[in-house]
Structure formats: structure tokens, C-alpha cells
């Protein structure tokens, strides 16, 4: 792959849970002109340490620069680039779909095919919760689109390496 080939990359960043760390990480992307696809922060199994999952479209050179810049931020403990073939990555989506008595069974069947759950039922709509890869979520939306999508929200992606390997902070 050439250095100019832009690909989707997932970085997992362990940070100390301190005020302003998300702003500092996001600010680094803004200052450098890097475009974020998604950024998700959450607590980890270790008290006081959070994991930020960053998804960015970039070439190899830019990913190296991003990694170096992230490592310069003091509360950052570790940065790991996750490889697609050894990573489990998921997003979550809530979608409100038109569904009345006449088409509700078809909407529910569509949700079931994608292993999604109906989490709310109203007289003229249902809310469906789905988790999965971006491709799976897009495919579900494509199936639901003919019914009429009233509202939609998707989270950014979270990811872990497969197998026993962990991302414990360096000592």
C-alpha cells in the first residue's frame, strides 16, 4: 500500500481519566487538520483509566503523525493501531421507523433478521436498537428506509483486539 492510499483506521488510546482529556485529544485533530470519523470515550476495567476509540480516514504517514502527536499528550498512556482482521468493532444505532398496525409485522421481521431489538412501540412507530459493523447498520437502514425513517442516531465505533491480548498501560 502506498503512503498516499487513504484507508479507514482505528486507534485505541488509553488515557488517564482527567478533566479535559477529550478536548485535548479532539483539539489535536482540529489543530492538525485531521478529520475524525468518530471518537468514543469510556471507562475501562482499571479505575482512573479511560479508553478512547478514534476512527480516522488517513494514509500511513498521517497515521504515524497522529500516533506521535497523541503520545505527546501527557495523560495519554498508550496508543495502539487496531488491525481490521484482528479486531472486533461495533457501533450502536437507534432508529425510529414508521410502523402502524398494517406494516408493524414486516418492520419487526426486518429487525429480527438483523438481530436488532424493538425497544419501544408507539401507535405509529417503533424504535429499533441495533449493534454491529458499519456495513450491517447501513444494510438495516436500507431495509427500513421504505417504511420511513423518522429519527436516527448512531454512536461512534468501539473496538477490542480478538483473543487473550490486552491493552494494559505501559509501566
TrEMBL record:
Pathway, per record: Amino-acid biosynthesis; L-valine biosynthesis; L-valine from pyruvate: step 1/4; Amino-acid biosynthesis; L-isoleucine biosynthesis; L-isoleucine from 2-oxobutanoate: step 1/4
InterPro entries (UniProt xref): Acetalactate_synth_ssu, Acetolactate_synth/TF_NikR_C, Acetolactate_synth_ssu_C, ACT-like_dom_sf, ACT_dom, AHAS_ACT, AHAS_small-like_ACT
GO cellular component: cytosol
EC number: 2.2.1.6
Gene3D superfamilies: 3.30.70.260, ACT-like. Chain A, domain 2 (3.30.70.1150)
Catalysed conversion reaction: 2 pyruvate + H(+) = (2S)-2-acetolactate + CO2
Annotated ACT domain residues: 10-84
Keyword Transferase: yes
Role description: Catalyzes the conversion of 2 pyruvate molecules into acetolactate in the first common step of the biosynthetic pathway of the branched-amino acids such as leucine, isoleucine, and valine.
Name used for this protein in its record: Acetolactate synthase small subunit
Phylogenetic classification of the source organism: Bacteria, Bacillati, Actinomycetota, Actinomycetes, Mycobacteriales
Amino acid at each position: 500500500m502506498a503512503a498516499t492510499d487513504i484507508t479507514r483506521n482505528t486507534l485505541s488510546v488509553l488515557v488517564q481519566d482527567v478533566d479535559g482529556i477529550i478536548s485535548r485529544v479532539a483539539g489535536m485533530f482540529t489543530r492538525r487538520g485531521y478529520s475524525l470519523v468518530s471518537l468514543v470515550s469510556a471507562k475501562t476495567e482499571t479505575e482512573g483509566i479511560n479508553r478512547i476509540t478514534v476512527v480516522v480516514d488517513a494514509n500511513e504517514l498521517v497515521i504515524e503523525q497522529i500516533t506521535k502527536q497523541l503520545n505527546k499528550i501527557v495523560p495519554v498512556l498508550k496508543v495502539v493501531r487496531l488491525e481490521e482482521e484482528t479486531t472486533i468493532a461495533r457501533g450502536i444505532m437507534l432508529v425510529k421507523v414508521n410502523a402502524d398496525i398494517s406494516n408493524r409485522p414486516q418492520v419487526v421481521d426486518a429487525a429480527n433478521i438483523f438481530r436488532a431489538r424493538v425497544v419501544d412501540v408507539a401507535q405509529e412507530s417503533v424504535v429499533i436498537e441495533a449493534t454491529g459493523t458499519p456495513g450491517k447498520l447501513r444494510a438495516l437502514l436500507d431495509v427500513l428506509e421504505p417504511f420511513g425513517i423518522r429519527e436516527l442516531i448512531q454512536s461512534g465505533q468501539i473496538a477490542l483486539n480478538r483473543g487473550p491480548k490486552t491493552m494494559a498501560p505501559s509501566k
